[in-house]
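Bug #77: duplicate submission created two jobs. Keeping one. Sequence:
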Amino acid sequence: MNRIAFTLTVNAMACEVVAEPRKLLSDVLREDLRLTGTHVGCEHGVCGACTVLVDGAPARACLIFAIQMQCREITTVEGLTPAEGLSPLQQALHEEHGLQCGYCTPGIITTFEAFLRENPKPTDDEIREVLSGNLCRCTGYANIVRAIRKAAQIMRKGTAA
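Kept job's structure:
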């Protein structure tokens, strides 16, 4: 198949890509742009490991053709990490032991960065509902829920300041 040149906006930067039209966003991010924080797990959109933000909303990068993302804003976990230190969500996951192997973590971070912007004071049930789209085989989820609750509190205090 013929490769096509197109531009993607990833983490607020224009990125020139030359790829086959059938190449998935997850593969372009990892292979062509070397943004390996976007993980590929199930390749069916079920596990959430490949979650990125498209125009600020969570989307499964393993289900989207990269060429479809022209004129859209894509944010990966790398784009959510401050130049110095960690985001409140990343810090809370670290402090509350909300990660172990880390494979699911980028998808959880991208999912909840968007969720906490929309819902700054979530209940544990709301957190668990959103978290149900991200599979984790290591932690049992309790520490992840606690970390997200803590991050929400920190982010609310930061907004109030």
